[in-house]
Amino acid sequence: MFEKIDQKKARLDSNRPLPTYTSRSLHEKLILEWIYHSNAIEGNTLTIKETKVILEGITVGGKTMREHLEVINHRDAITYVEEVVQNKEPLSEWQIKNLHRLILKGINDDYAGTYRDQQVFISGAKHTPPAPYLIKEQMEQLMNWYEQETTQMHPVTRGALLHAIFVGIHPFIDGNGRTSRLLLNLELMKEGFPPIVIKVENRLDYYEALDKAHTQEDYDDFIQLVAKEVEDSLDLYLRAIG
């Protein structure tokens, strides 16, 4: 399944380091699209241009404070992901809570970085997340699985499964989707892949693949969806270097 991806990744690696300005502009483009699409999937109404000007420090009239904070917080969470990658830190529950704390900072400080204490339901999904008293145990199981069973997996599979299992547990009151996509890109970036963007226009396929994973324990559709986005990001980089 990943033969083409691995070939493209090898081509990209053979051209590293990329020219400084090429690398910087690709990075800025992907970060902007990552923030815009990840927030839009969750219902943020800002356009990509509005997202860009907020990142530049300008307030957009007629938009809520929450929508502004979702952009700023997401940028800060991505910066944190980049620091984790740069420092080669192993994934931990503490990191996951830190990521979530950044996502909800100033939006819902009571629950930022704290596992939920209430039952939640995912709108439009057949899957129901576990009861609050099961979260600690299921998160520990997730971390044990990650540490013991994923070392030989292809990074795309590992990242996709981490995202899918985490969001199925839905450990937080809010911000699970954004956090899961940050975790997915964290795994990819650790292995030298560019970050991917799950696009808002693919939201239905994304949700359906996740629901199938959670209700049937069939992760193939979701892994394939992630693999397609990985290839898209690699293609963007390869076009830039010619």
From TrEMBL:
Keywords: ATP-binding, Nucleotide-binding. InterPro entries: Fido (IPR003812), Fido-like_dom_sf (IPR036597), Fido_containing (IPR040198). One of its GO terms (molecular function) is ATP binding. Transmembrane segments: none annotated. Residues 91-228 form the Fido domain. The active site is at H170. Gene3D superfamilies: Fido-like domain. This is Fic/DOC family protein. ATP binds at D174, G175, N176, G177, R178, T179, S180, R181, Y206, Y207. The record marks E42 as: Important for autoinhibition of adenylyltransferase activity.
